[in-house]
Each structure stands twice: as structure tokens, then as C-alpha cells.
Design goal:
The chain is mainly beta. Helices cover about 10% and strands about 40% of the residues. It has a 7-stranded antiparallel β-sheet with strand order 2-1-7-8-9-6-3. The chain has a 7-stranded antiparallel β-sheet with strand order 11-10-14-15-16-13-12. It has a two-stranded antiparallel sheet with strand order 4-5. The longest helix is centred in the last third of the chain and has 15 residues, at about 205-220.
Length: about 260
């Protein structure tokens, strides 16, 4: 069941085409000020006040009566924000409709896609310290095991160990010389992006607390640290992509990639 300000979408003969990945994904971070100094590795970043940006969501619906399409349009455009409740994932979002991004008719039915913005990240979230026990893991966020957040780190995350690119160095070239001239100097490393592949399996009553607790701690003031069995890295959170989301008998399985900037 999906309701919009307590009005069931079935009133518009609509039913959701289940794909909750956009809804569930963490929002991106707002642009961070960064200086890539040529003289030393990585970068200086201003993380004194990191802020989450709005989240872009697209949801598809099937209308069993296409004549109800404009009724839905008129309902959504009558106010900026509406409270959308999705019973399947036991979550309410305060969303802003942006556009009807797709419309396809077949017989008396229509398949539509609505683009929405979530302007209120971590809305109504109350933080508690991570305390879940999945056993010990070799991956830590600021010294806390990811298992305490109910998170497993998946195969493929080891790619974060890949060495950075080197920063460009000064080159001199003109039409009167062969090749280029540089000055012998130590090379320095650029900041880089890396994906941490994560998985949560939790009862629906626990899922959102586990999930948002991780986002809260990823986006706290200051630089974050990621420790593996091999090495420790400094980073900040940049974005997220949910790659798989399933619910079965009130158990949620969610796979997601965290895009991190290593500095």
C-alpha cells in the first residue's frame, strides 16, 4: 500500500511498480571545498560542516484507468510537499513532486513515472550508538566495526586498496625541442574515489535505525577513517547507490555501494 497524505493511491487506480532503490539510497553530500596541493599527497578538504544534499527519486506506477492520470497530476501539484507512506518498507517520506518523467498507454491502462525530491535527509531520525552484534569483522569506521551497524562488507571492496593516480607535474614544451622538459622532483598522489560494497540484512523494525545510523556517522564533522586488515585510510562520504533491495517476510536485504573520496 502507498498513501499520499493518507490518501490511498488506489483512489487514482494506481499501484506501485516495486523498485525501492531510489527511495532507500542515501542522499549525496553537498559539494566539499577541496585543495589539491601539488607539493604533497592527496588533498586538503573542508569538512567542518558537511551537509547532505537533496535526494532524487523516480517511482513507477501502473494506472488501471488512464483517465485518472490528470486527477493524480492535479492532486500532486496543489501543494509543494506531501507525505508519502510506503507500507512495504514501513517508511514515510516528505517528498516534493518535480515532474511526470514518463507516460505510456496500453489499452485503458497507463504506466507512469514520477520524479520527486527528498529535501529532508535523516528526517525524524533519532541517533543511538551502534551496538548490533554480527561477530567480529576486519572493516572499521572510525574504529567501530561495521558489524556494529549491522553491515557486512562484500567482495569487491578490496579495490579501495588500489594506488592513487599521481598528480600532474610541470612540463615545458615548445616547437623547437624534442619531447618535454620536467624537473626532477618527488611525485605526489591525487585524492581518489572508491566504492565500498555493503550489505544489510535486518528485520523491517530494525532496518532504518541500522541504515540511518551508518549515514549519520559517515557524515559527521571531520575526516573519517576506514581501517581494513591491510591499512587505514582517511576519507569522506560522497554518494550512495542501492544495487539490490528485497523484502521477504519482514526481512529486508539491501546491497549498496558507498562512494568514498580518499584523501
Amino acid at each position: 500500500m502507498v498513501t499520499i497524505d493518507a490518501k490511498n493511491i488506489s483512489d487514482f487506480t494506481a499501484s506501485i511498480l516495486p523498485n525501492y532503490t531510489d527511495l532507500v539510497a542515501f542522499p549525496p553530500i553537498k559539494e566539499i571545498k577541496i585543495n589539491e596541493w601539488a607539493e604533497h599527497d592527496e588533498a586538503d578538504v573542508d569538512l567542518s560542516k558537511p551537509m547532505l544534499d537533496k535526494k532524487i527519486i523516480e517511482i513507477s506506477f501502473l494506472l488501471s484507468n488512464k483517465e485518472k492520470y490528470h486527477d493524480l497530476v492535479n492532486y500532486l501539484k496543489s501543494t509543494t510537499y506531501r507525505n508519502w507512506y510506503f507500507s512495504e518498507i514501513n517508511k514515510e517520506f516528505k517528498l516534493r513532486a518535480v515532474s511526470f518523467s514518463s507516460y505510456k498507454e496500453f489499452e485503458k491502462k497507463a504506466e507512469i513515472k514520477i520524479k520527486l525530491y527528498d529535501d529532508f535527509p535523516l528526517r525524524n531520525f533519532v541517533y543511538t550508538a551502534p551496538s548490533w552484534n554480527l561477530g567480529t569483522t576486519e572493516w572499521l569506521l572510525d574504529g567501530i566495526e561495521f558489524a556494529k551497524y549491522g553491515v557486512y562488507i562484500l567482495q569487491g571492496s578490496e579495490e579501495i586498496h588500489q594506488v592513487n593516480e599521481f598528480k600532474d607535474i610541470l612540463e615545458v614544451s615548445n616547437s623547437l625541442m624534442q619531447g618535454v622538459k620536467t624537473w626532477g622532483q618527488p611525485l605526489t598522489l591525487k585524492s581518489r574515489r572508491g566504492n565500498l560494497k555493503c550489505f544489510i540484512r535486518a528485520h523491517i523494525s530494525d532496518f532504518w535505525n541500522f541504515y540511518y545510523r551508518l549515514l549519520h556517522d559517515l557524515t559527521k564533522e571531520g575526516i573519517r577513517s576506514l581501517t581494513t586488515e591491510k591499512k587505514s585510510y582517511f576519507f569522506y562520504y560522497n554518494n550512495c547507490k542501492v544495487t539490490d533491495f528485497k523484502k521477504n517476510n519482514n526481512l529486508i536485504r539491501c546491497s549498496f555501494d558507498l562512494e568514498l573520496i580518499f584523501i
